[in-house]
Amino acid sequence: MPPLSEFLTFAAVGALAQLVDGALGMAYGVVSAAMLLGLGLPPAVASASVHYAETFTCGASGLSHLAAGNVRRQLFWTLAIPGAIGAVIGAYVVIHVPADGMRLALTIYMLGMGVFLLWRATRPDRGHDDVVPRATRPLGLVAGFADAVAGGGWSALTVTTLVARGATPRTVIGTVHLAKCVVSAAASVSFLLHLGAAHGTAVLGLIVGGMAAAPLGALLVRRMPARAATLLAATAVLALGLSNVVKALH
């Protein structure tokens, strides 16, 4: 593939993933990683590329939420530190497990994430408060590990779990996005030490596409019902997972 066409392909992946993330407040990583895997990138390279890009995109988003007063410091530290530890462990695992075995594991993960999002779309809304839910530290550790291994899933796991436990959605989304910057940076350092600056075209494309689509994503979140956006994301992730299953069988 010519360099310009390759760059535009990855920019389109970043833009589409950012639109989904803008509508949901989550799923940038899992959608972009799934699409990169579908384009043939090895699991470790796909996850590394997503995390390099997310260090920038989530940093900008998280700082915007901080300026808007959407970040709770206690929740931030409760998520960020265990999440960074989990991300370092996950990066080590995805680098050292054989690519075929990791691709199978990620396919199962994508299918599970799609079912999880479908389930979340059917859950009724409930009252919310600002108490940090119990077991948030283990949640951050598990979400950071899964995010580094799969290239995404941090926000899908943390946002949905915390909101389901009664935390205020606005502050959960803002805090999770800022914590994601720390988690992505920790994973990125681990990937850099083991892989180097792998596939710069993919990283640059994801950053440019994501930043270009961010304003449209912000508009989309105002217009699209949250349940409809969740269903669309679940359908996309399930379709990508099933596509990997079909490829594996052939």
Q: Any chance you could write out the topology, listing elements then pairs?
A:
Layout: H1 3-24, H2 28-38, H3 43-67, H4 73-96, H5 99-121, H6 136-150, H7 154-164, H8 169-195, H9 200-223, H10 226-249
Stretches where pLDDT falls below 50 for ≥5 residues? none
Mean pLDDT: 77
Figure out the total of helices: 10
* Number of extended strands: 0
Tell me what portion of residues adopts beta-strand conformation: under 5%
- Approximate helicity band: over 70%
- What is the alpha-carbon Rg in Å? 17 Å
The H-and-E topology, N to C, reads as HHHHHHHHHH
Q: What does the largest sheet look like?
A: none
What is the 3D form?
globular
**What structural class results from the helix and strand content?**
mainly alpha
Number of domains: 1
Separation of the first and last Cα atoms: 24 Å
Protein name: Probable membrane transporter protein
Subcellular location: Cell membrane; Membrane
Family: Belongs to the 4-toluene sulfonate uptake permease (TSUP) (TC 2.A.102) family.
Organism: Rhodanobacter thiooxydans
Quick summary of this structure?
The protein is mostly helical and 250 residues long. The protein has helices spanning 3-24, 28-38, 43-67, 73-96, 99-121, 136-150, 154-164, 169-195, 200-223, 226-249.
Overview of the molecule:
The chain has 250 residues and is mostly helical. The protein has one domain. 82% of the residues lie in helices and 0% in strands. The protein has ten helices and no strands. Helix 1 packs antiparallel against helix 2, helix 3 crosses helix 6 and helix 6 packs antiparallel against helix 7. The model has no long low-confidence stretch (mean pLDDT 77).
